[in-house]
Amino acid sequence: MVDSKVMPFSLKNLVFPRWKYILGAVILVALGGYFFFGRDADLGATMVIIPGDFREQVRVSGTVIAAKDVDLGFAANGRIAGTYARVGQRVAAGTILAQTENGDLAAALEQAQAQLASLERGTRPEEIAVASSAVANAQEALINAIQSAYTSSDDAIHNKADSFFTTPRTDPKLSFTIANFTLKTTVEQERAAIDATFASWKLLVSSLSNANVADVAKQAQLYLKQVVTFLVDANTALNQGIADQNISALTLASYVSTLATGRTNVNNAVSAISADMATRESAEKNLTLLRAGSTPENIAAQQAAVAAAQASLAKTRVIAPFGGTVTRMDAKVGEIVSPTDPLISMQSDGIFQLETFVPEVIIARVAVGNPSTTTLDAYGSSVEFPATVIAVDPAETVKDGVPTYKTTLSFLVADPRIRSGMTADVIVETGILPNAIVIPAGAVGKKDAVPYVSVVEKGTSVERTVTLGPSPALGQAHILSGLSAGDIILLSPAP
Hints:
Elements: E1 7-8, E2 25-30, E3 35-40, E4 44-49, E5 52-66, E6 69-73, E7 78-83, E8 90-91, E9 96-100, H1 103-121, H2 125-160, E10 165-166, E11 173-174, E12 177-178, H3 181-206, H4 213-239, E13 241-242, H5 249-292, H6 296-314, E14 317-319, E15 324-329, E16 336-337, E17 342-348, E18 352-359, E19 371-376, E20 384-392, E21 397-399, E22 402-411, E23 423-440, E24 444-447, E25 450-457, E26 460-465, E27 467-468, E28 476-481, E29 488-490
Antiparallel strand pairs: 1-3, 2-5, 3-4, 4-29, 5-18, 5-23, 6-17, 7-9, 7-16, 8-15, 9-14, 10-11, 12-13, 15-17, 18-22, 19-20, 19-23, 20-22, 21-22, 23-28, 24-25, 25-26, 27-28
């Protein structure tokens, strides 16, 4: 006999224990059907079955985590020049959090970028004018250097070296005694030959113009080489000179000093011509490139140079990879750092995530996109936060000897109440059982491994064999056959 007082079946009357390591459970919630509970005076607690659609759910525990959590450090060795964020500060993506000393790298990047901008912009008429002026100035400087070289060489030979020769222009002979006859002969022959060189050199200088300055400069270098060779040999002879009744040691010393001045002037002339030739060549090359305009190859090469400069500079900076909150700042100004030192930590703001571990026995029910209702221990079971499954790890994670699969959910709304590290109770909706009969698992008995349910018929209990579907955990049984709508069953099967 059914008690007139009936009560609707509710999951709130069930107790769901929380397993160690967040093991899950499958529960089923009626959508359209109702179970009515009562009590038969002779048989005990009973219920009337009305089939309906049931929402299949998986219940697990989890932990709130940041959607993104990262440790950051420098990519190269260096000394920290500045830190620009503090713990707890919210920063935007791309914010420089800290940097090492990088003034030279920053300047190199600016220069590379300026050169690229110039190439991409193309040559302006005023730039060509400046380059043309540079060529003209370089040519003028080279002409002056050639003329100066001739003058310096002429002075070194005819005013300084000739002071210790007799009849230097007709039959040059050293005016002092030297034991090294071979050296004496060499120096005198070099002096005799050099006047012919100066005659040709003088004619060449008189014909100097912008048109032939490069060729004249090369020839002048050859003449200078001959002059330098003679002056070196003459200096060696002077250092081996022997003072006697004709020339004193003091006079020989004065010759050495005088010649040294001439040698210095000639050496300076050699350097000046070389430098001015290089300047002129560079100026002409630059003018040629400007007149030709930028080629795709030139632009591509400069783009690569800019990228390389940017990469080098980036290694000196720690930059926020996303918008979020700084959770650690161990970088200190003045410290030497290396790439192996993670000094700064961040976590993303806004949408947090849930990390759960679903046991192997029920993981097949869980899929990306499943919605969930989540409560946080901090706020109690009455405050719910919607979320959805966004990832299920393909590889298992063993927890206390039990294979589980890490499952990640994302909250649907950014809520300031949600904080990283909070403990959560998660109910994931995994599907619908249409027109199903679901009863408490305790109502199912077994004899010889065959499941049965005690059905009340005409005031007595009758054992009825049933077929079970996939067994929901935590006190639920899905009946595929053996029971019908309107059946009254015992909540505890008769033995």
